[in-house]
Design brief:
The structure holds 2 protein chains of 2 kinds. Chain A is α/β, with parallel strands linked by helices. In chain A, strands 1, 2, 8, 9, 10, 11 and 18 form a 7-stranded mixed sheet that branches. A 5-stranded mixed sheet of chain A has the order 19-17-12-21-22. In chain A, strands 13-16-15-14 form a 4-stranded antiparallel sheet, with helices on one face. The radius of gyration of chain A is 24 Å and the shape is globular. In chain A, 35% of the residues lie in helices and 17% in strands. In chain A, a hairpin with a 4-residue loop joins strand 9 and strand 10. Chain B is of the alpha+beta class. In chain B, strands 1-3-2-6-4-5 form a 6-stranded mixed sheet. A two-stranded antiparallel ribbon of chain B has the order 7-8. The radius of gyration of chain B is 22 Å and the shape is elongated. The termini of chain B are far apart. The chains are: A alpha/beta, B alpha+beta.
Chain lengths: 664, 265
């Protein structure tokens, strides 16, 4: 039996995984990263439009700060987020974006003077300040009060991944590429590492580590139509779920992005609309202001996607042989802007649609985009129920997104959570109380169990085809667990997914070879994916309200009285459904008590505690008027939740520190 | 090792398809893919032909995925983003290195010959280990920003940069490490250790970056030899095949001039 020992095992080589490993390594702990693909090919790369951080450099971002970012994020989450975690996040995001600037990310910069921008379909001249010249620029994104999204043209994730990946190489962190974790090694209370399969030769190795971190991204490939890369199959989620000890939070919260190109589902960035692009229907009519007069195209993604589908249902879609779609119009932004700030969009339109977006409209329709749910963690990133297991980024339910994530908050979360959780992992490894004595028999047991499963698949005379089961699962998820959900559809989905799960135990391979066999990979993954799909569908069936991206046509109102709580799913070995429990969100501790989001539906069922907390908040606002920091401390103290080295205020042009820092 | 069971559509054909291949009937295309498992000593490289119906907007990603799902689940290839941004799927398409995911079958069909990218370790069929090559190149060229301070004060306003300089750095930073430039390189055939246009472009990128403390003397230590910039024969196949259209010709010439200046001192 091959065994690799390390201090920290990071599963996943995207931004969150790389950043956690760098943090641990810089604190003197050895880290090994496992990655299905070379790290710079991870799905983090696909983040186009930018990263939210409240720098407030551009004139349209003036007045931005952590408080505004906090409120936007909580409203975006439809009050599903953990507000203390949102505070940790918004205070660290400016530090993260500035660290990345020092690491070499070529952030687009502010140029002083006049420039013409498109706002609400109109050309407007704005004037950037002299003192902002050369600082990082921000663009507008959905669901935000200020221009806050820092960007590198529309290749932001790419540039971030280059810089962070390069720093990981510079730190000498080994990445074991084309390696896939099949199971966590644990005893029900403590995680000891993972059983890992080499995708080149098919051999299994046990990786034993003091701390294990899941950073495997999202599970978009549960759906047929998704913007996600083909590797985003939720396998990291499934590792935690199959442990029976760790829980998944809010898996029914699935985001659909308004602008997947039609029909391929490839993303074109929200920056298209942030920079002034418009959504139009079959008549060329700009329809979003009819539905959302406040934020129009720039309401949150859940709201815009629903409005688009609603408009298509009214017969206003553009017919095609693949079905109906709508138009994204960015022609008004002009060729120079598109070829500078939206060049990936230009290339994608050119190669996949054969059109020129400086002249032509882009066919779009909402597509699955982001998994808000994930491995439930404490604010430190550690599972509350499986010691030594950590998670960060899209794979985690930390939980800063609640039931809907804002654009620009996901790449931001990867590096922010990577920094924060990485420090806590280092603390964990420093603590002598976390050393363990591990019986080698336990490791052997886990390796042999996984080997036996693979051997059984290879030897199986089963009649089921793995690809066909996967395709059917994706069809069910897209058709019945999508943007609009009903109890009836969800019941049907759960029933058929259960059948598929049973059938997946009878898969037979057409090419029964044990080595680098893509069919074998599909077979063992689809068994895991079906459990996840059931967790999403069953959670959605059980949650009889609408919140954020989870919309039930038969329960269209947000119901704080019944449902202001987080879904926690666990899976017992051999079960055909997850076990669901609920973790209430405490209004008495909220800095921003539930209310209207500022866009979307205005009717919701209040929680009985909300008025009392709102009165307390209002009183504190009067008491601390004029001192936003003192008010914030009184409303929701969070500083002690952050690692010591990441605490502290953030300097801005309008909030200078003075002294002799680098501030100009 | 091949446990693959041929069916009527799976004809094994010679490595070089016969000239004068007939155009497909109606919308049918034929994909001739190289099959080879280097871990199987009894196995020889061969082309295998798959026939399928061409769909509207079909890319090689869609075609190969369909072949794997419906015809031959053992066929190895690499796709990740399928949107032309991650660099996983570079292969030789009808004799030319390119990104398979954004290649439309109607643009290259009806007969499409697919070979794995040369210059890299073959994993199997159309899958090559570009990741291993790129990591080794990055380590050798120390391809990361060498910062002035180890510990930054992250609470302070960031250092300024001229907007034009940020754009110039991004222009070179757009490299996706797909390996097409290495596959299209004449020097690599003769010098296995040649760093390729991808490596020289990185040197050009870090030279531009004021956040990197290194100077030309440092860069000369990394690429001032025949495995570096002086090995380039200026055939510039790299420039022609780069899917991101990076200005490789000018960047290599520029780096060579700067390194020559150090060498002549």
């Amino acid at each position: 039996m091959k065994v690799v020992y390390t201090d920290v095992l990071v599963i996943g080589g995207g931004l969150a995984g790389l950043r956690m490993a760098i943090a641990a390594k810089r604190r003197g702990h050895d880290a090994v990263i496992l990655s299905l693909v070379p790290p710079k090919r991870s799905h983090s790369k696909a983040a186009q439009g930018g990263m939210q951080a409240s720098l407030g450099n551009v004139i349209k971002g003036q007045g931005d700060n952590e408080d505004v970012h906090f409120e936007d994020t909580v409203r975006g989450s439809d009050w599903g987020a953990d507000q203390a975690v949102v505070r940790m996040f918004v205070n660290t995001a400016p530090k993260a974006v500035r660290e990345l600037a020092a690491w070499g990310v070529p952030w687009s910069r502010v140029r002083r003077g006049d420039r013409t921008v498109i706002i609400n379909g109109q050309k407007v001249t704005i004037t950037e300040r002299d003192e902002a010249h050369g600082l990082m620029a921000q663009r507008d994104f959905g669901g935000t009060k200020k221009w806050r999204t820092c960007y590198v043209s529309d290749g932001t994730g790419h540039a971030m991944l280059q810089a962070v990946g390069d720093q990981a190489i510079g730190s000498g962190i080994p990445v074991h590429e084309r390696a896939e974790a099949l199971a966590l090694i644990h005893d029900g209370g403590r995680c000891y590492g993972a059983v890992v399969r080499d995708l080149i030769d098919g051999e299994l190795t046990a990786y034993v580590a003091k701390a294990t971190a899941i950073a495997t991204g999202g599970a978009g490939r549960l759906y047929r139509v998704t913007t996600n890369a083909v590797i985003c199959e939720g396998i990291g989620h499934a590792l935690a779920l199959e442990s029976g000890a760790a829980a998944l939070g809010n898996m029914e919260a699935v985001q659909f992005h308004p602008t997947g190109i039609f029909p391929a589902g490839i993303l074109v960035t929200e920056g298209c609309r942030g920079d002034g692009g418009l959504l139009k229907d079959v008549d060329g009519h700009r329809f979003m202001p009819d539905y959302e007069p406040e934020k129009k195209e720039l309401a949150s993604r859940d709201v815009v996607s629903r409005r688009m589908e609603e408009h298509i249902r009214k017969g206003k879609g553009v017919g095609s042989r693949f079905g109906d779609h709508l138009w994204l119009d960015i022609t008004l932004l002009g060729e120079k802007h598109i070829k500078t700030n939206l060049r990936e969009v230009f290339e994608i339109c050119h190669h996949f649609l054969g059109i020129d977006p400086t002249k032509d409209l882009v066919a779009v329709r909402p597509a699955q985009h982001y998994t808000m749910g994930g491995v439930r963690t404490k604010p430190t990133g550690e599972s509350p129920t499986l010691k030594g297991l950590f998670a960060a980024g899209e794979a985690a339910c930390w939980d800063m997104h609640g039931f809907n994530r804002l654009g620009g908050n996901s790449v931001a979360e990867t590096v922010v959570a990577g920094m924060i959780v990485g420090e806590f992992i280092a603390d964990f490894c420093d603590d002598p109380g976390n050393e363990f004595n591990l019986p080698t028999g336990l490791v052997r047991e886990f390796v042999e169990r996984e080997q036996a499963k693979l051997d059984a698949l290879v030897a199986s005379r089963g009649t089921e085809d793995a690809s066909a089961l996967k395709a059917r699962m994706q069809e069910i998820m897209t058709a019945k667990v999508g943007i609009f959900r009903t109890g009836r559809d969800l019941e049907e989905a759960v029933a058929e997914l259960q059948q598929l799960l049973a059938r997946s135990r009878n898969i037979g391979l057409r090419t029964p070879s044990p080595g680098p066999n893509p069919e074998l990979v599909t077979a063992y993954r689809v068994q895991k994916m079906l459990k996840l799909a059931l967790t999403v569908a069953y959670g959605a069936l059980t949650r009889t309200e609408s919140r954020g991206a989870h919309f039930r046509e038969d329960h269209p109102r947000r119901d704080d009285a019944q449902w202001l709580k987080r879904t926690l799913a666990t899976w017992r070995d051999g079960a055909s459904l997850p076990e669901l429990n609920y973790e209430p969100l405490d209004i008495a501790k909220m800095e921003l008590p539930p209310g209207w989001r500022g866009y979307g539906a205005k009717d919701y069922v209040d929680h009985p505690d909300t008025p009392r907390r709102q009165a307390e908040v209002d009183a504190l606002k009067t008491q601390y008027a004029g001192d936003r920091f003192a008010l914030q401390r009184a409303l929701l103290p969070y500083d002690d939740l952050l690692p010591a080295r990441l605490r502290g205020r953030n300097e801005r042009i309008d909030e200078p520190f003075g002294g002799t820092g680098r501030a100009a | 090792m091949s446990m693959f069971r041929p069916t009527a559509t799976h004809k094994v054909i010679p490595l070089v398809p016969a000239d004068g291949a007939q155009p497909g009937n109606g919308g049918r295309i034929r994909v001739h893919a190289m099959r080879y498992n280097p871990r199987d000593p009894g196995n020889a490289p061969r082309l295998q032909t798959y026939e399928l119906e061409q769909a509207e907007g079909m890319t090689l990603f869609i075609a190969l995925s369909e072949i794997r799902e419906k015809q031959d689940p053992s066929l190895q290839f690499d796709f990740v983003c399928r949107a032309g941004i991650c660099g996983s799927c570079a292969m030789v398409i009808n004799g030319r290195p390119g990104l398979a995911c954004r290649t439309l079958t109607k643009a290259v069909g009806p007969d499409i010959t697919l070979l794995p990218l040369p210059g890299f370790e073959l994993i199997g069929d159309l899958s090559v280990n570009t990741g291993k090559w790129m990591r080794a190149m990055s380590e050798r060229l120390e391809a990361w920003v060498h910062m002035k301070e180890a510990e930054l004060d992250l609470t302070r306003i960031e250092a300024r940069m001229e907007p034009e300089l940020a754009e110039q750095i991004y222009e070179l930073d757009r490299c996706i490490e797909c390996g097409c430039c290495v596959a299209g390189c004449g020097t690599v055939r003769m010098r296995e250790a040649f760093v390729g246009a991808v490596g020289l472009n990185k040197i050009a990128r870090f030279r531009l970056d004021p956040r990197d403390t290194r100077d030309d003397d440092d860069f000369y230590e990394l690429v001032g030899d025949d495995d570096g910039v002086f090995g380039c024969m200026s055939l510039l196949g790299c420039h022609d095949v780069c899917p991101k259209q990076l200005p490789l010709a000018t960047q290599i010439a520029f780096v060579r001039r700067k390194m020559a200046a150090v060498g002549f001192r």
